[in-house]
Amino acid sequence: MGIKEKILTKSLWVFHASVGSCNNCDIEILDCLTPRFDVERLGIQLVGSIRHADVILVTGAMNKKALKRFKKVCGQAPKPCFIVAVGICPCSMHMFKGSYSMQSPLDEIMPVDLYIPGCPPRPEAIIAGLAKLINKVNK
Amino acid sequence: MKALFNYLIFPGFIFSLVIGGMGWWLERKFTARFQYRVGPPWYQTFLDILKLFLKETIIPGGASKILFILSPLLTFSAVLMFNLMLTENYFLDKSFVGDILVMLYLLIIPSLFIILGASSSRNPLALVGASRETKLMLSYEFIFIISLVIIIIKSNGNLMLADILNNQINRGMYLKSASGTIGFILALFYIQAKLGIVPFDAAEAEQEIMSGTAIEYSGPLLGFYRIAKTLLYFSLPLFVIALFGQIAINNPLHKYSAFVIEYVLILLLISVIKNINPRLRIKEILGFFWFFLFPLGILGIILAIKGL
Ligand code: SF4
User: Fold this and answer.
1) Radius of gyration of chain A from Cα atoms?
2) What are the pLDDT digits (tens) for B82-126?
3) Cβ contacts (< 8 Å) between A38 and chain B: which residues?
4) Does A68 touch chain B (CB under 8 A)?
5) Which of A138, B85, B127, B223 has its CA 20 to 30 A from that of B14?
6) Chain-chain contact of B47 with A43 (C-beta, under 8 angstroms)
7) Where are the domains of chain B?
8) Which of B127, B54, B228, B50 is CA-nearest to residue A78?
């Protein structure tokens, strides 16, 4: 475990990309910032611009229209940048599997660093997931 | 050798960075406590800066490369120069060639380069941010100049910071007088707007225009902006303390503790204003500065001329 990873994981700036979610996952992500869960104490911050991001949280089932844009957004992120799939939708397409407008699960499109299943995942689960990501990077 | 030590470590760059980082953290911590949160650990601001230097820098295609790269660097150097001038005066009791008008110029440079850097990035949201920042500058710099005019009148036309400090030591701090209080209020709003803190963060609105002026910056270039802002978190309150709240104390230890207390109080005031206000629209900001603070400033000038 290097000092570089240690610094990186102590100040994760999170960018939130919704590629066709039902909005519940997005609300749960915002819940993590509320007084009850307060991820800022772990140095995690929600940023507005993809250029500042260290983590991209992807919510929702990837649909065909969003795919092109999402690839573009991912290409704009400065390395090193981690991709996290939040909710069952990006993990496995959930009930939208086989729908005419839907693409495929996220990991068939690009490498995913962490899966947080749940519909929607509880804020505790998201925080536990981020802790797992931190451990994984530090190893 | 001694001069180099003074410039780089105490009371120059490193010292300012550490105190500024702590100040920024304190402001975040106050905000967190206002919202019943725990808040970030004390080293968070330093880690954020270090992390940015480990990341990749992306230069957007079609951007004017030279301007895009130079803007953060020049912002940083102007702020550093301002910091050095101020700390030399305040902590080492040295007076040097250069008065508060020079400092005013140095303070305008960062905002100018933030605007230039944002406009050179060829991003429409950055352009919106830049145009908002321009309008913001018209309001806050103007108010700060009026606040400086009050100071200059009170110190009988003296422009040197060292003389202003001595004047306060001999005759009591300016904050005690009515016009000094008004000047202090103006300067406080100036700090708030200069640092881009809510309610005056229209230029960097995160949710609205996605960090506005900083939107295209990443990695070390953003890091230089962060360092400049951290330094400003130290030097702007220090400047206001030096202009309005200098206390006559001979014991150096007490002098430093007086500084710390005043610094923390100013940060507390800033975060109170931040937490009880929503983000204002640019029109409301201009209205507030021009039609509320400007008449107040005129009143302050009249009081200062009357000697109150
Ligand atoms: S995982 Fe569930 S809550 Fe989340 S976007 Fe999909 S359907 Fe909505």
Assistant:
1) 14
2) 888 888 877 776 666 668 888 888 888 888 888 888 888 888 888
3) 32, 37-39
4) no
5) A138
6) yes
7) 2-305
8) B54
Q: What is the pTM of this model?
A: 0.88
> How is domain A3-138 classified at the CATH fold level?
Rossmann fold (3.40.50)
Looking from the CA of A41 toward its CB, the CA atoms found within 13 Å total: 13
Contacts for A22 with CB less than 8 Å, ≥ 6 apart? A60, A89
Q: Give A4-59 pLDDT, tens digit per residue.
A: 777 777 888 888 888 888 888 888 888 888 888 888 888 888 888 888 888 898 88
Q: Is the peptide bond before B41 cis (omega within 30 degrees of 0)?
A: no
Annotate B36-81 with DSSP letters as a single string.
T-----TTHHHHHHHHHHHSPP---TTS-HHHHHHHHHHHHHHHHH
Locate tokens 């939130």: which residue?
A16
- In whole angstroms, give the CA distance from residue B22 to residue B18: 6
ipTM score for this prediction = 0.83
Contact at 8 Å (CB) between B268 and B237?
Answer: no
Least Cα separation, residue B42 to chain A (angstroms): 10
3-state secondary structure at position B140:
helix
Per the listing, tokens 């230089």 go with: B224
Minimal C-alpha gap between B293 and chain A (Å): 32
pLDDT in tens, B261-275: 888 999 999 989 888
Sheet containing strand A55-59, edge to edge, reads: A45-46, A13-18, A55-59, A82-86, A114-116
Domain boundaries, chain A: 3-138
Phi, psi at residue A55, to the nearest 5°?
-130, 135
